[in-house]
Amino acid sequence: MVVPRVYLGVIFLFAAYSKMTIPVGFATALRGFLNAVALPNAYAWYKPIVTGLVLPHADVFGPLIIVGETLAGIGLLLGLGTRVAAIIAIFLNCNYLCAKGLPLWAPASNDVPDIILALIVIATSAGLYYGLDGAMTRKRSHRG
User: Fold this and answer.
1) pLDDT digits (tens, 9 = 90+) for 20-52
2) What is this structure's pTM?
3) Where are the domains of the chain?
């Protein structure tokens, strides 16, 4: 299951890079997204999280999102800490999905398919195949 793992890794690294290179800074862009998209569209139960936690602390959440996407991307791409990286990917995508408030089957969102791919990565131990997790496991087993 190398393809889903590498695909998700690349997606998350591109996402992190695009956030790092926003001229106004990602915290400012995050506030704009939350005000323009999340507040009018987020799932009703998620809106208090946006208004009470994320918006007032966008300067903290902005860098945390970038770090999370970067860690997920590197881990998935290299197959290093693959299950942890996939869990981070699921957590991030669940939050993106809730903020957008789209139906689970909405073709305009890739969040649900990415969550499913991350679940496949977890279920198939994808880091053991052509990944550093597998290389480290094989090295430990050869030591005896």
Assistant:
1) 999 999 999 999 999 999 999 999 999 999 999
2) 0.92
3) 2-143
